[in-house]
Amino acid sequence: MTSTAPPTTPEGRKAQPDHLGHVIFITAAAAMGGFLFGYDSSVINGAVEAIRGRYEVGSAGLAQVIAIALIGCAIGAATAGRIADRIGRIRVMQIAAALFTVSAVGSALPFALWDLAMWRVLGGIAIGMASVIGPAYIAEVAPPAYRGRLGSFQQAAIVIGIAISQLVNWGILNLAGGDQRGKLAGLEAWQWMLGVMVVPAVLYGLLSFAIPESPRFLISVGKTAKAKEVLAEVEGHGVDLDTRVAEIKEAMRREHKSSFKDLLGGRFGFLPIVWIGIGLSVFQQLVGINVAFYYSSTLWQSVGIDPSSSFFYSFTTSIINIIGTVIAMVFVDRIGRRPLALIGSAGMAVALALEAWAFASKTADGTLPTAQGTVALVAAHAFVLFFALSWGVVVWVFLGEMFPNKIRAAALGVAACAQWIANWAITASFPSLSDWNLSGTYVIYMIFALLSIPFVLKFVKETKGKALEEMG
Q1: Less packed terminus of the chain by CB within 10 Å, N or C?
Q2: How far apart are CA 352 and CA 113, in angstroms?
Q3: Cα(388)–Cα(23) distance, rounded to whole angstroms?
């Protein structure tokens, strides 16, 4: 039986294995925000058709209720960082948990369509805050030797949240006899689907009281002694705490607070590298991935599949999403970011083409022939797999690495904003586009998948193995 020494940081410090279990707990607690991010983003999938029937709303109006949460996401993402610098990372987590809880209760008990939309916006703000504060907090508390692996908790939590939301929806639907508007304890099934999120939201809030504040924030507000306690807690008592505090202070002193003005330059407004980041963010959404998470149950029901089966297929798609994400996490540092992106683009294009072909065979009674139905199901799962093992992870890796230090924060903000806008455009347009021509809609997504290939080949440089200081 052999033993291995704990990994060391570039400075030679050893991460203390006796503290690793506690650090994993802290990271997992923070990543609950990612779980709620994924859960709240996709739980609406189970309620779409019930909301349409309950409020007798058309496709365009329904799309706005579904997509309006993304406006909240943009607001939450844009404000979370500044709020966290003022009141701390933990307080922002607690605010997000409260918003998730209020949104879940309000969404489950709406008086009308307008207030359902309002609760969706509140939930979106919580999603946006969680999308920013989770990764930032984890990066600041994780021992350097484990930062990469612990940082992956956020993405893993998101895809698990998506899968659990679909499993819960499926279970509630079966309890309601397969009817999304079936009554359970006085409420319709879709109301329970949206309301169950109270459970993980409250758990997230409780866990936030059990984890320490970020040492970086504590140092920034002059609480150096408390920061040393937290550093000892997460990195071990063998660490030279004075040296670690000095390192953090020096890093903070040298940081350039990038602004929007720093991104301007060139003939087209932004610097070329900023446009590349925007392009990556937009392509990630324009292939139609969120249709799979927001509308998949509706999609399968529209081609003749019964609600219970359609909810089950939404769950299996989410499992495929987890598998693809694990594949990406394993290979992103082995074969590189660009090869994964190209493999994903090609795979998505083929899968989307097959879906378009299958949906073109929709019969007069709104169903698919057996062969085309099988092809559509397999292709839908293949599409999610190729997205998850490539663009789902690679884009975030690229955005974290590709920008020069002096503009990284501001450029990331612009790219993330572009991503939310593209997400909104796809989410808001799908119901109307599918009413027009479902097959044609998938052809549009396929074209964007194909266009992403020359975009990556011509404009995107590999960042694997390069120090952040080399980017420019």
Answers
A1: N
A2: 33
A3: 27
Q: Average pLDDT, stretch 52-63? A: 86
Q: Would you state the torsion angle of the CA atoms of residues 96, 98, 104, 107, taken in this order, to the nearest 10 degrees?
A: -90
Length of the chain measured in residues: 472
Tens-place pLDDT, residues 412-462: 778 888 888 898 899 889 888 888 898 999 999 999 999 999 999 999 988
Element (H, E) at 203: helix 198-208
CA distance 108 to 456: 43
Which one, of 131, 118, 129, 72, lies nearest residue 95 by Cα? 129
When pLDDT is averaged across residues 324-346 and rounded to a whole number, the result is 90
**The token pair that represents 417 in the structure block:** 């904003």
Q: Does domain 258-472 have CATH number 1.20.1250.20?
A: yes
229-248: pLDDT as tens digits: 888 888 776 777 888 888 88
Q: Which fold has domain 17-211?
A: Growth Hormone; Chain: A; (1.20.1250)
CATH topology identical between 17-211 and 258-472:
yes
CB atoms within 10 A of CB 467: 8
Show me where the domains of the chain are located: 17-211, 258-472
Q: Measuring CA to CA, how many Å separate 370 from each of 25, 359, 363, 374, 447?
A: 48, 12, 11, 6, 26
Place of tokens 């709303």: 57
**Closest Cα to residue 105, out of 116, 113, 114?**
116
Q: Estimate to the nearest angstrom the gap between the alpha carbon of 254 and the chain centroid.
A: 30
Q: How far apart are CA 45 and CA 321, in angstroms?
A: 16
